[in-house]
Structure formats: structure tokens, C-alpha cells
Fold these 3 entries.
Entry 1:
Amino acid sequence: MIILVLNCGSSSLKYQLLDMKNEEVYDLLAKGLVERIGMETGCLKHQATGKETFIKEMPIEDHTVGIRAVMDALLDKEYGVLNTLEDIEAVGHRVVHGAEEFVCSQLITDKVIAQLEKCSVFAPLHNPANILGIKAVSAVLPSVPQVGVFDTAFHQSMPSYAYMYALPYEYYEKYGIRRYGFHGTSHRYVSAKGAKFAGLDLECSKIITCHLGNGSSIAAVLNGKSIDTTMGFTPLEGLIMGTRCGNIDPEIVTYIQEKEGLSPSEVSKVLNKKSGFLGLSGVSSDARDLNDAANEGNPRAKLTLKKLTYEITKYIGAYAAAMNGVDLIVFTGGIGENNSRLRRRVCENLTYLGVKFDYDANVVRGEDTIISLPDSNVKVALITTNEELMIARDTMNIVQDEE
């Protein structure tokens, strides 16, 4: 089954075209990115497997035009991979927020779109763009089934004592204020893949998954189900991230508003766009730049990386306590898969759990690897994530069940 996977942002869309033979066997046919949608000049970057990257600048007024540009690239005689659009059998969409409406991936219908629009209040920057992508595909490929895969769905298995905040209960009833969690597609993928890779039975396991990148979150996965995660009502909560502050005393928000004379939207921008690695280090929001600066002796870059290491270590300890033990710790995401020094520093603080670290194995980057010694009480692994494959799997299974 040939499936187009879309991840639509407010002014961009990423895509992959996969030929799914089954859940484990597939071919990546093409991938790409459409940027600057709605601006004077947009850009399409298209990479068919085994061919040179094709780059085209042109006006891209909206997501429908962007989707049409993707279709044209897929059909291009030189850079394309399809003979006709009828070859596309299904489209899978990453949808950021499903609130309590969606506990699993769903076939897109008018009713589902209406529910997604209600959920947009929780993700005003993301869900509307996801919906635009769905509607754009409907305009270009009206007869092709579409599936929504939700970042929040995996975490809907959290117990109420983990997802509720100690605020007046009426705020939950009126406004849906609770912990939702994000990166669920990645946590679901790497916990299952990690268990298999480490020789564990997923349905009888205690796994901590660390998705570390520009946005980061950690999840406690008990017997294959999420029971807690660091991100909350929004992706702002939890670990320090590229530009997000992570956990802070909530009273800081009103204090900054008063001292700086900021509006709610302005202080939100400070917390989401000007904080994290960027705000604390004053160097960059990119961990690679922080590593370079730390190696050059920059004290604030060192502080930022130490804080990240400390918070990861602290959450691993908390989730090991929550599950009364841990069998496997997984590192994934751009930082988790590529920063061997961070993995080492975290694991050196986990000897109390019985972690025995394999320093030689840890030198790898972006390759599924066990980085604990054979006699370690807790296995530690680098597991590469693939959210697009997870979306394609769900899409294939749902569409086949409907046939």
C-alpha cells in the first residue's frame, strides 16, 4: 500500500511517501519539505530515494497549493516516483492534539474534522494547520482515505492521579485543563521497538523513553502503556528544551508580567520562544552549538547542558519509582540519538538502579544499539525513532480494516 504521510505546520509541511508491504517491510519512495506557505515566495525541497534533491521556489499561497506542488514533484518525469496520483492509496496525517476525544488513530470523517476543530483551542498553532492539510488533500485527492494519528493519543492511558492538576476541579470540567502529553507517536514507537530490540516482552515490561531534541519529553511506559509523561497541558511543561523553559514556579509568570509590563501573549512568547537552551545559555537553541560553546569554555553553555542532564536523570529516577523499577531506558530523538556525552553523563548517575554502562558501545550515533553491559540490571538502548513509519502503519491498518 502506497501511503503519503503529512506533517503540516502553520507555514510548512513535511512529507514522506512509503510503499508499505506490511508493518515491518516497506520502501521509502520519497520525502520532502514545503516551506514559507502563504509568503511571497515559497520553497519545495523534494528528495526521491536514489535521486538528487529537487528544489523549486514559487508562490505557495496556501496548503492546497503546497499539496499540489508535492503531487507535481511526485509525478515529475525526472525527480518523481509515481506514474499517476491514483497510485496513492491512503494519506496519514500527524495531528498534534486530540484532547480526550481521541485515544487512538482515526479514519478522517466530517465528524472527526469537527471534533478536531474543537480541539484546536488546546493547540491553536498546530491543529488548524493539521486540519488545513486534511482539507487540502480532500481537494486534491477527494476519493483517497485519510487517517489522523494524534500526538496525545498514546498518553490517554495515564491514570487520573497522573494527569490531573491540583487546581479547582471546575477548570477541568469547563476548560479541559489536565496533562495531555505529547510526542506520543514517538514514545509508542520506540518503546515497542526498544522492547523487541532488547529481548523484552512489551506487555510485561517497565520502560522509560527519553525523546530528546529541540522539544523533549520523557515517558513512563508500563506493560506497553503510558502511565506518565513530562509534557503537560501544553508542550511547555517538563524538561528544559530548545526555546521552552520547562518546569518553573507558576508564580514566576505573574511576577514577570508585572515587572516587565507584559501581556499574557507576550509572556507566553518569553516562556515558549525565548527561554530554554537559548535563554539560559545566551548562545543558541541548538544543543550542538551548546556543545561547541561548552568545549570552548563558555560557562553558561556548560550550565545549560548540566541542567538538561540533571533533569533527565531526575525524571528517570522519578519514573523508576512510579513503576517500582525499570527494565529498559531508551534514548531517542535528535539529541538522544546523537549526543553520546549526554547519554554517558546521565547513565553514570544511574548506578543505584543497577545500570552498568558500556562506554565503547556508546560511541555510536543514530544506530539502534544496546549501550549497557550484558550484566547490567537495567538495559539501556539508543533506539532511532520513526514517527512517519508509525503513522504509515496506523494508516495502513485502519484503511485495510475499513475495506
Note: The CA atoms of residues 164 and 178 lie 5 Å apart.
Entry 2:
Amino acid sequence: MNALTLLKGIEYTGNIKDCEISFVTDDSRKAGEGCAFVCSKGANFDGHTFAAKAVELGAKLIVTEHDMGVENQIVVNDSKKAYALMCANFFDNPSTKMKMIGITGTNGKTTSTYLIKDILEQQGKKVGLIGTIQNMIDQQDIPAKYTTPQAYELNVLLSQMYKSGCEYVVMEVSSMALVQQRLYGIKFDAAVFTNLTQDHLDYHKTMEEYFKAKCILFENSDNLIINTDDEYGKKIAEMYKDSGKNLITFSLKDDSASCTAKNIQLSGTGSKFIMVSEGSINRTEFPMPGEYSVQNAMGAALTCVSLGFEMSQVAQSLKNVTGVKGRCEVLVKEPFTVICDYAHTPDGLENVLSGLKPFAQNKFYVLYGCAGERDAAKRKYMSEAVAKYADFAVLTSDNPRGEDPQKIIDDAVGPLVENKIPHICEIDRRKAIKMALDMLQYNDILVLCGKGHEDYQVIDKITLYLDEHRIVEQYMKQRNDK
């Protein structure tokens, strides 16, 4: 691609030759012959320090935020924004050729993306998906490194989706991706807000900054689908009520919302409810338990309605969706129940455990851990959530990363002790799972929290294989062979 086409829509100073650019990167490890190298500042490295070296390696264009005194240099106000636009230009702006749907919030993003994809596919549409568990081009699975990819990788995916015939793209949008401008320049046809609770404060520092990061998505979206049962959702609805955007609110409690859920019937395996909106009453059901699942289902349904689909068709499609791996996923049904869920925040645990506890016919066991090198303040609140519902708790490791796993457990165990919840602490998660399984009796429920779809654990900054699905499967096979 020629340099002038690559820079379309970007304001800059400096003169450049209209040369051919072979690829675009902001990663110093990838800079090489024929590239455009974008200097941006990260947490641990400032790409500006690499500008001269990039020229030595054959870069034909250097993009900086201030004069570095190198050849083929242009200066922009924000190199991260420029990089996102350059990546989109390099792949001929694929996001403009498909309907773009973004979901943001602390919990519920993954479930919502899969629900929307499933509903749209039942309407005969080809859909791409970008998210935590995996990326999908129609039915082709592609491993995911980040919840929301970096700008170059994102546009590679979007380009492949378009070439494969995808009409819609539904993606999880993380707060960090928004702050880092990975999606800058992308116009979303619909944006969904699920909820906001304490998470990622190691990065954002305050809840206010975390909230501001989420709101970036709504500035760049036409249709806003907002959960107003959440206090931050109410703030968003108030912020955008006179914006000219199509604001759609949903609630389980507030009849003034655009759509409300009535006659909610919950079970250990699913939910039934009626969606009531202006001029529309539709019964539906959904194969995931808990009120939070009803909220996810409503958000997904209303997103599809905002894009022109009939509510009656969408409500029928909800009945036919399948579950999501690692989201309230039943691994064992009898003689006891074992459920795997990704819940790893205080609110996530509250939602899952409150939704399952009423259906425990005998003891209710909860296994969980807290992440290392992440917001340590939430450890106590996670244990408080567990203490509200567990008859017995197993406190173990999540991803300790480089932090001492025993210290993490020591930080978290207080509420279990204070509330006199029977518990054990076991650093080794594999061993902890087997200990919990050994305790189960007829009609007990065990909820494995934190890993969900993940099949690894990060210890001493080394990624080790650990798949709870396989651990439970092998345990049950050995049990049944006895």
C-alpha cells in the first residue's frame, strides 16, 4: 500500500515520499524492511526510543508524537489513534463493510456475544465473533490472545471475516482496549452495557476512570442497549437520553425501562420469563440460570431488535440457543452436580452463587481463588460473596502469576473465618478440586469458580496446563470404574 493511502484521514506534520509500505507495526520486535513504524508509549517501553533503530532496519515511514530527528518522519498528536487508523486503512477499512456490535461491562460480555451470534445465525446471517474464549469467523474457531485484540490483529480478523462473507461482527470490548485506542475510528451499529463492578483497578486506579473508559464505546455507537438495573447503567442512560442516539434500556425491576422482564421463573438449569416492551409481549426461555442470565438474554435480544429483527423471532431464537463454555456449565449432573463458571470478581461470584444456591437440595460447595498481580482489594469482597452462600468453601489459587500464592490466600481467607464458614485452603488447584470432589455426597452441588473456559494456570509467570473439564472428567471415570 502506498504511504499516502495508508495515512488517509490522519492529521500530521512533515513531508514524506509516496512510497510503498509492506506492513504496519508499533512493536519494535517486528520492525523491518518496508514497514511503517509507529512510536507509541506503553507501560514499560516508549517506542520513540526505537525510532532511529527502526530506520536502520529499513522502515520507510516513522510516525511519532514529537520530532525524533529521523528520516521519513511524520508527527501526529496521538500515535495510538494514528496506529488504529493506519491498521484499518491497510486492510481497506473492513469494519465499515459489516454491522459492528460491541459489548462492554465487567461481567456478561462473553455470554452476550455468543447469544447475539446464535440469535443472528438463526435468522440466517453469517457472523464473526471476537472475545475472551475464542475468535470465530462464521464457524471457524481461532485462538484468542486478548479479550479485544490489538489494532493490527483486530483488522486482520475483520478483513478475514468480511472476505468469508460475514455480515455482522459481535465483539467483547474491554476497558483497556478502549483506553489504549485499539478500536479508534470504528463506528459501532450497536453497543451493549451489561454492568460495572470493581475490577481492573490495578490498571484504571479508580472506579470513575474505569467507568469513563467504558463510556468511550458509547460515543462511537448508534444504538445503545443499557442495563439500568446497574447504577452505572442508569448514569449512562441519563448521559445519553438527549444525545440523538437510539437509547434502549432494559430492567428486571423498573417499568420505565424500554423493556422489562416479568413472571421470571428460575431453575437450576435455566430461566423462563416474559419480555414486555411498548406494543410487544413475548414469552421466552433460556438455558442458563440466575437473574443475571435473564439480563444477558434481554440485552442480546434487544441488540438484535435494534438492528431490525422482530422481537417475536428473537424471543423464539432465545429458546434454541446453546450454553457457553465455562459459563454456568454443568460438568456432572448426578449423583451430585458439578458446575464450572468463569466468575472471578465479587459481583460475578454474587450473581452465579445467588442464582444456584436456591436449587441446592443438599450441601452447596464453592471452590475459588483470587488472581495474583491484579486488584488485591477485591480479594476480601470475593470471599464475602462466597461466605454468603457456601456451606463449605475451598480457597485455592487462580492465576498467582508472580505473586506468592499463600499471601493471596491469606489476603482472602478473612471473611470465611469471620463468618465461621467451614473451609479448607489448598494452594495446588488440581489437588483442591480433587479434595472438593471427594467430599461430595448425593444431591450436593460444587461450583468451580474462576477458570471457566481457561485450560491453563499462570504460576511464577509460567503458563501451565490445567483444564478443570478434564480433571473432573477423569475423576468421574475413575470413580465409576471402581
Note: The CA atoms of residues 30 and 37 lie 9 Å apart.
Entry 3:
Amino acid sequence: MHGAGNDFIIINNIAGDIPETDYAPLARKLCASHTSIGADGLMVVVKAEKGGDYGMRFYNSDGSVGEMCGNGARCIARYGYENGLAGSVQRIETTAGPVTGERLSRRIYKVRLNDPTLIVPRKKLILDGQELELGYIELGSPGIPHAVVLLPDMDTRDRDALRELGRRLRFHPEFPKGANVNFVQQLGENHLKILTYERGVEDFTLACGTGSGSVAAICHILGLTGSNNIRLENRGGELSVDLKRDGDRVFDIYLSGPTNIVCEGEILDEDLN
């Protein structure tokens, strides 16, 4: 499945036939684009442990554990609804905490992202001896780390140079857990363009759900958006974020957007043992 170009392989393991120790190597193998299916990440549906409808385990394409994935959660909410695991409103257990998913139409799904546990609207760090200002936010606990870099001229920047900047910020010592790096260009009062260098994928992705939520939160605090409903143009499509704010506190962040089922079937990869 994919949500606005952010693509995932989903495996149902509620029965527990696949040991958890296999999740990371499966992600590395199956997400490889040239030798297997190829995807930004692997999501495993597991049995709920805390009263939810089911659990979601997310792994990046390099096999690293992801706390949560916004577009992934939207896709898995559709999977849960269409496979009888939950109703049109559902509660999904993730590593970063519970996430509520809702079916708006056959292909449009909305999820409530984890509330921020840390927000630094203006953070300064040194890169190549120069001071750079950005925003930093963590969603959920353990927090999903996102850096937000405002670039009014993003469209005119060299893409390879921007990718290298994203890579260097992603590994900057100021971010001990690493960070997803979101470059942002304002298109209108409540209309933003976003390009995300994702931790674990180690490249730009076509869309990032938690990145879109993080960008909307930081930009709202900075006064760049005047509405609680914000449109975000990702390379893979448009996402919508609704949120609430009380001073520097942002909460009730909802991410809405399209989902697409690409294929269903069996994995026959002969290199898997």
C-alpha cells in the first residue's frame, strides 16, 4: 500500500507465526527495491496487548525500528477496516503509544498522531561553523524526532545539495537519536510545501505523515499559519493536518489523506529461507 507515495509492505502476524526477531531482517530484505518488492518500510500487524483493536510494528527499510509512521498508520487503518480487524473508528497500538484511525471514505483515512512530548520552535545549532536556526519536535513517547527547516527558496535549491544537507542534519550530534529532517516552503497562509529526508530510509521520501504533522505544529506556533487546518504538499500528494494549540502547546493533531492498495498476494522470494 501507499499513502501519498509513502509505500509499505503489510504482513498480518496476529497469529504469531513469525517471530519478532525476524521483523528487522525481513524489512531489510523485502524493502530492497532491486532484489525484492521494495518499500519505504515494513508494517507488521500484531495482536493488541493494551485494549486496542490490534498492534502495529513499524520498521524502516534499513531494518531499524520506527516509533510510528503517520502515513503507515493511515494505510494500516484501511487494512484493519477492510480485513475485519476493526470498525470505521479504531484504536491502533504503536511503539510510540495508541493511535486512533478513522475511515472518512473508501480511500481517505484520518489518524490522530501522538501528541508532542517536546517542542522547541526555535533551536540553533552549528553546521560548518555557521549558525542554523530550525524547529525541533518529538511526537509520542518514545518520541519520533523531527527537525523543521524553513527554506523560502526550496524550489530553486539544487536537490543533491539539499539531500546532503538533510543527511548531515539527520546525523547532527545535537540529535542523539538522529532526526527526520523536513524542509519547508510556505506557499500560502495555510498552505505549505514539504520535503522530508527520512531517518531509516536515508533519503527523501515522497511523503511523510509524522513529518507533515510536525511541520504543521511548528509553523503554527511560529505564526506562519492562521488556521487550525493546514494543507501540506508532499511530492507524492497533498495531506491535510488539523490541530489544536494552547500557547506553545500543540495537541489533537489529525492527519488526513489518500490510501492506495497496490497489490495483495504471497511472497515467493527464493532468497528467503
Note: The radius of gyration is 18 Å.
